Amino acid sequence: MHIDELRKAQRAEPFKVFTLNLADGRKFRIPHPEFLALPPEGRRSAIVFLPGDEGFEIIDPTLVTSLSITGGKPPKNGSAAKDGA
Can you give the pTM of this predicted structure? Predict the structure, then answer.
C-alpha cells in the first residue's frame, strides 16, 4: 500500500479508528492518530505504537495489504490493540 493512503487515514477529519492489515497476517489497530508515526517524506518505515508499555513495531508500509476502517470514535484513553503475532 502506498504510504499516502496511510497518511490519509491518519489525518482524516474526523479521525476514524482503523486497522492496518499486513501481508504476514498481523493486524494493528490504530485507535488514535498518535499511535502511527509516518515519515514526512518518502515511503520508508512506519512506527506503530502498541498499547500500554508494550513498545512499538516498525513496519514497511509496502507490507500493508489493506486498511479496515471501523468508523468508531477513538477511545478517550487512546489504548491501542495488536492482533496476531
Answer: 0.79
SS3 61: helix
Q: Determine the Cα–Cα distance for residues 57 and 50; give it in Å rounded to an integer.
A: 7
Please count the structural domains in the chain: 1
Parent domain of 19: 3-73
Q: Phi first, then psi: what are they for 35, rounded to 5°?
A: -85, 0
Q: Give the CATH number for residue 37.
A: 2.30.30
- pLDDT of 2 > 70? The answer is yes
Is 62's pLDDT higher than 70?
yes
Residues in the chain: 85
